[in-house]
Amino acid sequence: MDSVLLILFAYLYGSVLFGEHIAKARGVDIRSVGSGNVGATNVGRALGKKYAVLVFLLDFSKGLIPMLLARLYFGLDSWTAFFVGLASLLGHMYPVFHNFKGGKGVATAFGTLTAVSPLIAVLSIAFWGLIFRWKSIVSVASLSASALAVLLLLFSDYPFKIFFMALLMFFLILYRHKDNLARLLEGKEHSFRS
């Protein structure tokens, strides 16, 4: 398999905004609802939990499938794996099919992480659950889990390229959450606490 084709596939598959398409099929303009984001959380607010789970799994696959292929054909200690992980995330965040206006990338990044290390992925999602139970704010849980994943990769025996990829992905996710961070500072971020 050619590495350039795999990187291109990762970006183009990442560029398919499943949340927007599914919401549109249900007669909802997801960008005009709630936070306006195309990810699972906002889809869940608009359409219900089963659609949130569906969108999460599809966005998750955008990171999982390309990285599994990169791992199989090129190995994790390759620049192909490095760029495939970033391409998947950049596709979701800046999709060519949607005027480069995409989502925040947490589910896609988690898919990439799962392909790299199922153990670190499980630890990260468990940490997400703990933080969400404590704060009831998805953005706080997502950023906390993303930071933990980077930290665990730093102290693991995975190739440095994988740690560097994860670090760049974290900063991209952090940047895409800038509005959430602003709302957190103002005490206006959406909470699921009743």
Describe the structure.
The chain is mainly α. It has one domain. 72% of the residues lie in helices and 0% in strands. It contains 10 helices and no strands. α1 runs parallel beside α5. The chain is globular and about 40 Å long. The relative contact order is 0.13. The mean pLDDT is 94.
- Beta strands, count: 0
Query: What's the end-to-end separation, in Å?
Result: 50 Å
What is the molecular shape? globular
Give the count of structural domains: 1
Order of helices and strands: HHHHHHHHHH
Helix content: over 70%
Secondary structure: elements and pairs:
Elements: H1 3-14, H2 18-25, H3 40-47, H4 49-73, H5 79-93, H6 106-116, H7 118-135, H8 138-154, H9 160-176, H10 178-186
Helix pairs in contact: 1-4, 1-5, 3-4, 4-5, 4-6, 5-9, 6-7, 6-9, 7-8, 8-9
Keywords summarizing the entry:
194 residues, 10 helices, mainly alpha, 72% helix
Brief rundown of the structure:
Helices cover 72% and strands 0% of the residues.
